[in-house]
Amino acid sequence: MSLASELIEKASSLGKMITAAESCTGGMVTAALTDIPGSSAVVERGFVTYTNAAKTELLGVKPETLAAHGAVSEEVAAEMARGALSASHAQIAISVTGIAGPGGSDHKPEGRVCFGLADGSQVRTETVEFGALGRDKVRRAARDHALRLLLSAL
Q: Which candidate among 56, 108, 138, 140 keeps its CA 20 to 30 Å from the CA of 101?
């Protein structure tokens, strides 16, 4: 059974709806979930907020947070997850923001991805350094990590 199938089955059995706020994955988390039959019982909506303006307008990420920490930060990931949860009817939200590559900097290297997970009572964040694997591999690794975070949170 695939990770996405397992997640759909678990969320469905618990009666939980999921939302995703994605930047560097560009909707890959939501797509992985909606590829599974029966996902309409679980996937409430998804947000692809690639630009800072989209993060602010759709998810309520504060411009001050973006200015202070940058889009690739746990602070922004937390606000993205919280914003997705409040802008949906879901009970759990995942957010993904990172540098898939090519490129990056000494301060924020290629392969750094920040995740946020909100469930209404709390928001947890973490940063994973996938390394300079190349854009496609970083994005797929981030998608899979997001799915695992959701599954473990359920």
A: 56
Residue 20, SS3 per DSSP: strand
d(CA 23, CA 28): 10
Please list, in sequence order, all residues whose beta carbon lies within 8 angstroms of the beta carbon of residue 37, skipping any fewer than 6 positions away: none
Contact 136, 61 (CB under 8 A): no
Q: Which residues contact 67 (CB under 8 A, 6 or more apart)?
A: none
47-82 confidence digits (pLDDT tens): 999 999 999 999 999 999 999 999 999 999 999 999
Q: What percent of the chain shows pLDDT beyond 70?
A: 100
Whole-angstrom Cα distance, residue 117 to residue 99? 19
d(CA 93, CA 16): 11
Q: Which residues face 123 on adjacent strands?
A: 118
pLDDT tens digits along 102-128: 888 888 899 999 999 999 889 999 999
Residue type, 13: S
> Which of 5, 59, 18 minimizes the C-alpha distance to 150?
18
pTM (whole model) above 0.85:
yes
Looking at residue 149, the DSSP 8-state letter turns out to be H
